[in-house]
Amino acid sequence: MNPLDALSALTQVQLPATGVNFQPTGPTIPGGAISESFQSQLQPMEIPPIAAPTVSVGAPDGPATWGHMVQQMVMEVNSKQQTAAQKVSDVLQGGPTPVHEAMVATEEASLSFEFLAEMRNKVVDAYQQVMQMQV
Hints:
The chain is an all-alpha fold. The chain has helices spanning 3-10, 36-40, 66-92, 99-131.
């Protein structure tokens, strides 16, 4: 299926929640009805939830100290960002990686980075509160 057929098929998709047909506002691309094989692929997918990284301090296979745990989390976030960059690069070069897979990897890397930044902010706030305590 070429990209023009896919685009014309997407302009004729019926939204399941409202029952309203999607009509593009720009010029339409000529094309036929959605084929049965393509229509079967338009079924809603179940997306697994993205969980926060789980790290247990002191476990035999986990980090032994707070510093090791933070280092491992930073390395995981970096790995996700590198994977996302590779997938986006592959999509841009016309490789076999699907666009949606690259987008999901990019969002996962972004959310992981935001989680790490918020964790850092909480640690800095806690440190500042401890430093302001009167002895």
